[in-house]
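The freezer alarm interrupted the setup, so I double-checked each line after restarting. Inputs confirmed:
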Amino acid sequence: MRLVCFLTVVLLLGGCTQPEKSKPIPFKTTGDVKHTMQWVLDPAADHIWDSAGSVITAEGVEELAPTTDEGWLAVQHSAVVVAETGNLLLMPSRARDDQDWQEIALGLIDVGMRAAKAAEAKDADALFEVGGQLYRVCVSCHTQYMQGDEKRDPLTE
Amino acid sequence: MSLKQITLFASVALALCVPGQLSAHHAFGAEFDPNRPLILRGPVTKVEWVNPHAWIHLEITNDDGSKESWAVEGGTPNTLLRRGINKNSLVPGTLIIVDGYQSKDRSNRANGRDITFADGSKIFMGTSGTGAPEDGRDPKER
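Predicted 3D structure, all chains:
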């Protein structure tokens, strides 16, 4: 009986031992920064921008905010995509530096999560306000890391 | 997975994966021609008070009496608000003059720089830092 208890304890302890010193977890990116902008960030940001605001004509005012729970959930999803894109931009193969680039990417995460909260609360005014903040993050990055149009984009040269 | 979940998943996937969709956010040089300045005059027909750029639509009358609809891109709504323009100051019918640059594809789209109202007041309607030509209209260039 003692032997059984001893072996049980040994087995349990063995299962709880720390893994070997952690190695860097490998990852495999699927594209460069421009690819991330085109296929991940832009569609998600556009969805946020298209989901708040007004269209004014002689016939009246059309509010663009979602009118259903499913619509708001879809915006929340896009907002989280925006936030997580900040992490994608911080990956070693994409990050340009650990100074302003890092700060802007972290800013993108923050503004994405603010958009997610606004969508979760179904707050159209807050989502509209955050949409403006999101654009400022975009401009601050492009002003520093892009020059002119795509042909002069240093990120792809 | 319920039908509702499948529908939601499909709609989200569709919203995120539409190929070839023109991004709402773009550099000036990607869409507009700095060598095609223009002046548009006419009443406002529609205002899209949206991020990242507000769009003002107006109807112009050509010399031969024909009419054309134009869409003019402005700065962000927040930028316009700081400069004194809000969605109520651009109600349909308001007569405006827009100074800007035509799109590269020669469609009836332009990037607006200054907007002038009937009382003579003029406001910079663009956004700084988008790569637009330094033409002296952006107060931040001065």
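Quick read of the result. The mean pLDDT of chain A is 86.
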